[in-house]
Design goal:
This protein has three domains: 1-76, Orthogonal Bundle (Helix Hairpins), CATH 1.10.287.110; 88-255, Heat shock protein DnaJ, cysteine-rich domain (Chaperone, DNAj Protein, Chain A); 262-376, HSP40/DNAj peptide-binding domain, CATH 2.60.260.20. Helix content is 26%, strand content 26%. It has helices at 6-10, 18-31, 41-58, 61-70, 95-104, 130-135, 276-281, 340-355, 363-376; strands spanning 122-128, 137-148, 163-165, 174-179, 182-187, 196-198, 210-221, 230-233, 249-255, 262-264, 267-275, 283-289, 292-298, 307-310, 326-333. The structure holds zinc ion (2 copies).
Length: 377
């Protein structure tokens, strides 16, 4: 199912500021509130879910950047805690609305802000030659990402005794606030929902438990990949916050066009130009394959468009071991840049064709002119 554009869902422009996005979210959340939608709760709930997801992505700087660049593809498969793992609690005391109210009444950015949050998934676009795609290849890639801090091992502090229970919420992660008519539960402003605080934050990561780094990874690309294939490296995305699991890295394959071969799934096609002498008399011609040259027998009287199939000279199927074929398409080339001698030989050949009244050397030509004659006769 094609997903709707997040900006469209919120009814804001692509250049909307965070406060415009918040405003749109608040308005739509009110609109789809269960109290106002007694008759069609299910529909309102679905709408609200969409709105919430759009809001969460577009107010998260990194996720927004990923979305702006890759669209929904940025979050395919197991996107982290931000957009869905919590699920939608349903109406009537569900957690979803608690989040909204904490947003409305001056809380932070809902849960997720500083609590354990799974790292974002990353996408890396890799460009391969046809040869690499066909044979498979090992590639080193450099990915700018967040990795677990090696000083504190993701704890945010060097000594585990420095992680203490939060005084403000006594470890609950939430506090009760009274706002006019509402008694709302709000994320604890001191520990941002973690229930724990770090007394002496790690100097390297400032207590975040992760640092920015360009990671070098070795990726094994299987034989037979094609443009559009994705390889998932589990846990190689961004490190999670505060010890949460890392996201995944998706390596998106793109195969460059080849000078000789055109690919069609596991089959290859190539053009084999031959001269009129070879085409007429037949002979051997060397044709290229991905694994070197092979000899192809051209029978006498071969015409342009004739196709020869070389079994098993294509590309291995990504699933299974079946090999594709190589299709060689013959093109008979009219000679150019002729010497005087060659011109004479051809002139002589032409004369001999003319002398033959049966036109048996050019059956196609004869049949064509017979039809033309009939047409005008
Ligand atoms: Zn650290
Ligand atoms: Zn707290």
């Amino acid at each position: 199912m094609a997903k709707k554009d997040y900006y469209e869902i919120l009814g804001v422009s692509k250049n909307a500021t965070e406060s415009e996005i918040k405003k749109a979210y608040k308005r739509l959340a009110m609109k789809y509130h269960p109290d106002k939608n007694q008759d069609n709760k299910a529909e309102a709930e679905a709408k609200f879910k969409e709105v919430k997801e759009a809001y969460e992505i577009l107010t998260d700087e990194q996720k927004k950047a990923a979305y702006d660049q890759y669209g929904h593809a940025a979050f395919e498969q197991g996107f982290g805690a931000g957009a869905g793992s919590g699920g939608f609690g349903g109406f009537g005391g569900g957690s979803a609305f608690d989040d909204i109210f904490s947003d409305f009444f001056g809380g932070g950015r809902g849960r997720g802000g500083q609590g354990p949050t799974r790292g974002s998934d990353l996408q890396y676009n890799i460009s391969l030659t046809l040869e690499e795609a066909a044979a498979g290849v090992k590639k080193e890639i450099k990915v700018p990402t967040w990795v677990t801090c090696d000083v504190c091992h993701g704890q945010g502090t060097e000594k585990s005794s420095d992680v203490v229970t939060c005084d403000t919420c006594h470890g609950a992660g939430v506090v009760q606030m009274r706002q006019g008519f509402f008694a709302v539960q709000q994320e604890c402003p001191t520990c941002h929902g973690r229930g724990k605080v770090v007394k002496n934050p790690c100097k390297k990561c400032h207590g975040e438990g992760r640092v920015q780094k360009t990671k070098t990874l070795s990726v094994t690309i299987p034989a037979g990949v094609d443009t559009g294939n994705r390889i998932r490296l589990s846990g190689e995305g961004e490190a999670g916050l505060n010890g949460a699991p890392a996201g995944d890295l998706y390596v998106q394959v793109q195969v460059k066009p080849h000078a000789i071969f055109e690919r069609d799934g596991s089959n290859l096609h190539c053009e084999i130009p031959i001269n009129i002498a070879l085409a007429s008399l037949g002979g051997e011609v060397e044709v290229p394959t991905l694994n070197g040259k092979v000899s192809l027998t051209i029978p006498a009287e071969t015409q342009t468009g004739k196709m020869f199939r070389l079994r098993g000279k294509g590309i291995k199927s990504l699933r299974g071991s079946a090999m594709g074929d190589l299709y060689c398409h013959v093109v008979v080339e009219t000679p150019v840049n002729l010497t005087t001698k060659q011109k004479e030989l051809l002139k002589e050949l032409g004369e001999s064709f003319k002398a033959d009244k049966s036109s048996k050397h050019s059956p196609k030509e004869k049949s064509f002119f017979d039809k033309v004659k009939k047409f005008f006769g």
